[in-house]
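Field log, afternoon session.

UNIT: design team B
ACTIVITY: writing a sequence onto a fixed backbone
BACKBONE:
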């Protein structure tokens, strides 16, 4: 009798017949990293529940964590597309501030004007970055560093360095304080942006082009990918989402401030890197970015509840980002 064929199915779980576990031995590195991020998030939640059982695992605190993560999360989704092309955008924090002030100048005409003004101004500044990088061929670091200072200057100049109150703009404040089925509106916006970003990156030709440009720009050009238009579009996308972030942040603070969004770009870049998107381009994950944003938010919520000084929180953030880069980079030499 011939020998039975070799087993080709995934190995059975040790938990019993008919149950399965992922085969981590043959899993791609990026997928493995996503599972690791999920495990880290679960571990953090367990640690928080042990250290602060009365305040950390509550529903209100979980809602607060996600609400605080919403602005960084929206901006980080746009940053994922930029970094996927081997670029960087250092200006998003300043663009958030400038977009908020631009919208605030229109708020007397109604909440809709504030929202359209903020998003439109963010898109405009993103378009300046896009033009400089895609058609002016300026290095992204330099172009966005210039916008970092220009946008902050515009934010201070447009209303003579003064914040703009939004207490009378109920339509705007709804994005910061409103709820739908007990879920904060800002969290719903984050989830919608994340889902749209995932679809765009993973289920469209555009997403494949973005990754191709980051993987090998010259090969992508030879293959017919419109490299300049792709580069132009990703920086416009970050500007657009920075405008959305300005609406969420201003709504939560009930004020558009010219000093808001300080170091927001570093939080967004850190979340993207932690999530597994390669700084060298050619590899990107929206799910990883979302997990990175939530992990950051959970860590700093817990550190705050443990009364850890702000300067130590910044040190922890830097260590986490450095460790993430060291772990993820496949191009070690």
């Amino acid at each position: 009798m011939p020998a039975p064929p070799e087993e080709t199915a995934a190995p059975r779980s040790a938990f019993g017949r008919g149950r399965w576990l992922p085969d981590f031995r043959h899993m791609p590195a990026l997928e493995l990293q996503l599972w690791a991020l999920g495990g880290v998030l679960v571990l953090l939640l367990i640690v928080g529940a042990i250290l602060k059982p009365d305040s950390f695992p509550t529903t209100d605190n979980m809602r607060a964590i996600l609400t605080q993560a919403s602005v960084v999360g929206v901006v980080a989704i746009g940053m994922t597309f930029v970094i996927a092309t081997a670029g960087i955008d250092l200006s998003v924090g300043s663009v958030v501030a400038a977009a908020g002030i631009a919208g605030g100048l229109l708020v007397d005409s109604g909440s809709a004007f504030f929202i359209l003004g903020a998003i439109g101004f963010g898109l405009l500044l993103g378009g300046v970055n896009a033009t400089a990088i895609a058609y002016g061929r300026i290095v992204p670091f330099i172009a966005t560093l210039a916008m970092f200072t220009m946008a902050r200057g515009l934010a201070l100049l447009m209303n003579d360095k003064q914040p703009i109150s939004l207490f009378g703009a109920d339509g705007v404040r709804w994005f910061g304080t409103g709820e739908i089925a007990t879920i904060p509106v800002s969290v719903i916006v984050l989830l919608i942006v994340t889902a749209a970003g995932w679809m765009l990156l993973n289920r469209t030709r555009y997403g494949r082009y973005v990754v191709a440009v980051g993987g090998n720009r010259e090969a992508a050009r030879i293959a017919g990918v419109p490299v300049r238009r792709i580069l132009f579009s990703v920086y416009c996308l970050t500007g657009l989402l920075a405008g959305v972030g300005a609406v969420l942040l201003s709504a939560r603070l009930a004020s558009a401030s010219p000093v808001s969004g300080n170091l927001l770009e570093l939080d967004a870049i850190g979340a993207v890197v932690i999530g597994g998107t390669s700084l060298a381009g050619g590899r990107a994950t929206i799910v990883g970015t979302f997990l990175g944003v939530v992990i950051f938010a959970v860590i700093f919520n817990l550190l705050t509840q443990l009364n850890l000084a702000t300067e130590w929180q910044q040190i922890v953030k830097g260590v986490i980002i450095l460790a993430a880069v060291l772990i993820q980079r496949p191009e070690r030499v």
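LOG NOTE: The chain is about 70% helix and 0% strand.
NEXT ACTIVITY: expression trials, pending approval
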